[in-house]
Amino acid sequence: MRTLKLTFAYDGTNYHGFQKQANALTVQQVIEEKLSFLCGEKIVTAGSGRTDTGVHARGQVVSLTTSGTIPLDNLLKACASILPKDIVLWQAEEAKPDFHARYSACWKRYSYRIVQNRYDDPFLRNYAWQMRERLQLEQMQAAAQQLLGTHDFSFFRSAGSVPGSPVKTVYRAEWLPQGQSGLEFCIEGDGFLYHMVRNIVWSLVEVGRGLKSIEMFKSEFADGKRHFKAAPAPPQGLYLDYVGYTPNIRVDIEKIRK
């Protein structure tokens, strides 16, 4: 048996998230159907994490075992012709037998895209959170720095989370200007709770709009209690960028740059 590590990019617009569901079309369902056809056997995959309806991925990692002997280059070529155009397999690797896309992951990077326009752009409606007001970037940047380090992130967890520790470590949290009207929030950490990134973005945008002070942001974060006004940012602005499988985050970053 072979264990494979496959990395996919996908546009999540037309799917009810990544993870398989009984009565909805998902990315994982499509991937398994196409891989089962190519390998001539039933393929069951494990993803590095689930993404919600409308959320995108540039680096979703999937692991699987197969008795098939199809060469990796041929698998890449075959997937390019058989997968729908909004799902792309861009890397295929042999992995150790104990590799698991989710449980072997050491850290992840997510990005969230915002566009500040006077009018909504119909060509961006599925790929960014569009807003008409100009946000206070310096205030948002300062608030984001409060996330760095190891903390209890209960305040940013939505109902419906799977049981698990809310204590996570964030290595990076910063806003990057993109042209004249764009902003991209980049966050890296050893794990993320359900809706955690979208809830963080919503709270930081409240700071950027002047609706919440940095001190209030810090206080709510430390208190850890969700309140009815908190809501996640829209899903279409969120992207799963990268999943790292070595404990030293710098090793993976340098690998990307090369």
Task: Explain how this protein is built.
There is one protein chain. This protein is α+β, with helices and mostly antiparallel strands. The protein has two domains: 2-95, Pseudouridine synthase I, catalytic domain, N-terminal subdomain (Alpha-Beta Plaits); 107-257, Pseudouridine synthase I, catalytic domain, C-terminal subdomain (Alpha-Beta Plaits, 2-Layer Sandwich). Helix content is 25%, strand content 29%. Strands 1, 2, 3, 4, 5, 6, 7, 8, 9 and 10 form a ten-stranded mixed sheet that branches. The longest helix has 13 residues, at 27-39. The protein is globular, with a radius of gyration of 19 Å. The mean pLDDT is 91.
Reconstruct the topology from this structure:
Layout: E1 2-10, H1 27-39, E2 46-47, E3 56-66, H2 72-82, E4 87-95, E5 107-116, E6 129-131, H3 137-144, E7 149-152, E8 167-178, E9 182-189, H4 196-208, H5 214-223, E10 238-244, H6 249-257
Helix pairs in contact: 3-4, 3-5
Order of helices and strands: EHEEHEEEHEEEHHEH
- The name of the CATH superfamily of the largest domain reads Pseudouridine synthase I, catalytic domain, C-terminal subdomain
Main sheet properties: 10 strands, mixed
CATH fold node name of the largest domain: Alpha-Beta Plaits
Taken together, the total number of domains comes to 2
Counting DSSP H or I runs of 4 or more residues, the number of helices is 6
Short description:
With 258 residues, this protein is an alpha+beta fold. The protein contains six helices and ten strands; from the N terminus they run E-H-E-E-H-E-E-E-H-E-E-E-H-H-E-H. A hairpin with a 3-residue loop joins strand 8 and strand 9.
